[in-house]
Amino acid sequence: HLTQEDLLPDPMNDLQVVRRFTEEDRAGLKEAFGSSSDFIWILKDGDKLEEEDADEMASLTSYLMDFLIYVADRHGHIIKSVDKDGKYQGSLVLIPPVKPFLYKAYQFASIAHNGKPPSFVWDDANRKARFHAFGETTKRHHEVMHDCIDDHWYVNILGVAPSAQGKRVGTRLLQQAIHLAGDKPLFLDCHNGTVPYYEKYGFKVIKNFAFQTPEGTSESTFYFNAMRRDPQ
Questions:
Q1: Is 97:151 a contact under the CB 8 Å cutoff?
Q2: Exposure of 8 in the CB half-sphere (CA atoms within 13 A)
Q3: How would you list the strands of the sheet with 186-191, edge to edge?
Q4: What are phi and psi of 5, to 5 degrees?
Q5: What is the pTM (predicted TM-score) of this model?
Q6: What pLDDT, on the 0 to 100 scale, is given for residue 11?
Q7: Does position 222 have pLDDT exceeding 90, yes or no?
Q8: What does the radius of gyration of the chain's CA atoms come to, in whole angstroms?
């Protein structure tokens, strides 16, 4: 298990190693991803969110983050940042080196626990197709890390609460990921808008790919990136 002593010394001294997310942490993490462009694409197919979309967007974000949090709580290393009053600011989830079939088992367990996506996604053929298109990320992950598929670290979640944006919370969490990976490669996936940020810390885009949906189920194309950072 990861311990506080494993962390890189941090000037703000606000980072904590935790075993599980609290309810407050979960709410803060969902708020951090509440306007994520990939989630919006599932819901709106490239259109902008409108006020009337708020409830569906919140429900979809909650479902997708619950899926990731279930895996994180059981098989990830969790580091979170809190302010001086103990309020959640952001978190990092690192998946340590693991056999691919085991990680897939973690995902299946999360699906079994969380059930199907909300009905407004599952009962809409186009939204359901865009939801399933996320399977492309696993395929690209395996392609990019094929030479060390069970010997690399995976940045599974990196989220910062809106109220903590601009305070270098995400940067300090990412630096912990780089430190903990040590002499092993790091993998993450992200949308086009965050690529320049990760490039500043040594990550390189190995695959820029489009989420594929059956013909006629999506009017827009959403691009994602498989990024890798080798020891430096």
A1: yes
A2: 14
A3: 15-18, 77-82, 88-95, 153-160, 186-191, 223-229, 204-210
A4: -70, -20
A5: 0.94
A6: 86
A7: yes
A8: 17
Exposed/middle/buried for residue 177 (C-beta within 10 Å: 0-12, 13-18, 19+):
buried
What average pLDDT does the structure give for the chain? 95
CA distances from 146 to 115, 123, 141, 185, 220 (A): 30, 36, 8, 11, 30
Structure tokens at 134: 């996320």
33 contacts: CB under 8 Å, gap ≥ 6? 39, 61, 64, 65, 159
State the DSSP string of the chain: ---GGGSPP-TT--EEEESS--HHHHHHHHHHTTT-HHHHHHHHTTPPP-GGGHHHHHHHHHHHHHHHHHHHHHHSEEEEEE-TT--EEEEEEEEPS--HHHHHHHHHHHHHHH-SPPHHHHTSHHHHHHHHGGGHHHHHHHHHTGGGTTS-EEEEEEEE-GGGTTSSHHHHHHHHHHHHHTTS-EEEEEEGGGHHHHHTTT-EEEEEEEPP--TTS-SS--EEEEEEE---
Cβ 228 vs Cβ 145: under 8 Å? yes
Dihedral sign, Cα of residue 34, residue 179, residue 195, residue 212: negative
Q: Are 105 and 193 in contact (CB under 8 A)?
A: no
